[in-house]
Amino acid sequence: MNTAPLLEVAGLTKRFGGFTAVDNVSFAVGKGEILGLLGPNGSGKSTTFNCVAGMLRPTSGSVRLAGQEIGGLTADETCRRGIGRTFQIPRPFRGLSLLENATLAAHYGAGGSITREQAEGHARDALRLAQLPDDPHATAHGLGAAGLKKLELARALATQPRLLLADESLGGLDTAEMHQAAAMLKRIRDERGITIVWVEHIMGVLLSVVDRVVVLDHGAVIFQGTPEAAQADERVAEVYLGPPESRAA
User: Fold this and answer.
1) What integer pLDDT is reported at residue 202 of this predicted model?
2) For residue 4, pLDDT beyond 80
3) Which residues make beta-bridge pairs with 246?
4) How far is CA 128 from the centre of its chain?
């Protein structure tokens, strides 16, 4: 694995009025790495994620992709630079087929201006990677939670990302579906070399897949390291499980 940083976040801060949602967050992601960005609800991980993805403009700090500053770019500009993202709550175009959903996404991807034929080729490949049919008549109607998550992933992959930002990919899934989703992200990294930042609040399944984790609490980084070290870290345990005295009760 090439460990040269693809993504570098330095001193990232995001304030909403007098509230600091993200406070001086710094981390780097190597090319081909899967990084888990963890934290309980309200820890600042989604805000950090959205600053990287171009959904929010940082108050201060730096976000660099392959050495180029992207902090403050819009979401579509960020996508053109090679960052694809999924959303926690899938919202496909219900009136379009699965193939049309992914083809539309491909037109906004890293390839810039492409033909419909090229976009459809990217879309078919993305649907196959996400284990969905590329039949032009297949629609999102009848897809359960796992199927909708797969379509969300296919739309992101159709943009030809260098970096995939996966937002709460396990939400709404049962245990078997969680393991399948985690295995799919690992396979995409292994087969395509796509770097992944996976934002999640569910630790268990994620820790079996990621190379490293960054844990946030109240907008600040409280841990960076291996999954094994995270599970042994007392501060991480306190954030997720409460102080030792409450766990013993």
Assistant:
1) 76
2) no
3) none
4) 19
Q: What is the DSSP string of 131-165?
A: T----TT-BSTT--HHHHHHHHHHHHHTT--SEEE
User: In whole angstroms, what is the distance from residue 248 CA to residue 230 CA?
Assistant: 20
In whole angstroms, give the CA distance from residue 183 to residue 197: 15
Q: How far is CA 27 from CA 12, 158, 176, 224, in A?
A: 9, 27, 31, 8
By CB neighbour count within 10 A (0-12 exposed, 13-18 middle, 19+ buried), where does 59 fall? middle
Confirm if 34 and 209 have CB atoms less than 8 A apart.
yes
Nearest by Cα to 154 from 118, 112, 182, 122: 122
Q: What is the mean pLDDT of residues 17-29?
A: 97
Average pLDDT, the chain: 91
Asked if residue 76 lies in contact with residue 104, where contact means CB atoms within 8 angstroms, the answer is no
For residues 175 and 180, what is the distance between their CA atoms, to the nearest angstrom? 9
> Are the C-beta atoms of 133 and 98 separated by less than 8 Å?
yes
Reported as a single tens digit per residue, the pLDDT across 112-133 is 788 999 999 999 999 999 999 9
What is the rounded radius of gyration, in angstroms, for the C-alpha atoms of the chain? 18
> pTM for this structure?
0.91
Is the distance from CB of 54 to CB of 73 less than 8 angstroms? yes
Of 168-172, 193-197, 210-214, minimum mean pLDDT range: 168-172
In whole angstroms, give the CA distance from residue 189 to residue 140.
Answer: 25
Secondary structure class of 76 (helix, strand, coil): helix
The 10 Å Cβ neighbour count of residue 53 is 23
